[in-house]
């Protein structure tokens, strides 16, 4: 019995180490931009993210992008179509995730709640737009705390083009550092030689 408990604790600690999670930590009080949703629509390419347990389904992904449109089923909501290829930018298997995003509080349109249908169940998570200029970059952030015990946070850097201007990228990383995100924890998405599905 004690051996099983010890092994379970070791597994949790290992997961914490691998996923950039944190025990007994709260999600930070971050400033969110009051976005104009219609300007945020369109195609965004993932430039970088901090890996977490929540991003495990994205492992080995390349050419990741998101297309945001007005939802046909629920006017006022944003329809999400996230796609990537596995390993190879041309011949890799395509993976898609569909869902919707909407603000819980209309007075805070940058604090989005995302609902994604996994096929087995519907997953819900916050997706906050910390900053965007709509035409070049977006700082998108999610933070979830499980059982009041363990926190996963995932900052994303998005771009309107597959390559983000280096000066803009450096400024975005600096802003993330201002809220405690270590620049060395970012992993960069391959966007070179990609064959994007329409």
Account of the 3D structure:
The protein is an alpha+beta fold and 198 residues long. It has a single domain (2-188), classed as Lipocalin (Beta Barrel). Helix content is 18%, strand content 41%. It contains three helices and ten strands; from the N terminus they run H-E-H-E-E-E-E-E-E-E-E-H-E. It has an eight-stranded antiparallel β-barrel. It is globular, with a radius of gyration of 17 Å. The termini are far apart.
CATH architecture classification name: Beta Barrel
Separation of termini?
A: 53 Å
Topology-level CATH name: Lipocalin
Q: What shape does the CA trace take?
A: globular
Topology order in helix (H) and strand (E) letters: HEHEEEEEEEEHE
Helix content: 10-25%
The number of helical segments is 3
Query: Could you give me the name of the CATH homologous superfamily?
Result: Calycin beta-barrel core domain
How many domains? The number is 1
Class from helix and strand fractions: alpha+beta
* Multimerization status: single chain
The chain-level mean pLDDT equals 84
Give the biggest beta sheet.
8 strands, antiparallel, barrel
Which parts are unreliable, with pLDDT below 50 for 5 consecutive residues or more? Answer: 1-19
The neighbouring-strand order within the major sheet is 2-3-4-5-6-7-8-9
Could you name the CATH class?
A: Mainly Beta
Amount of beta strand = 35-45%
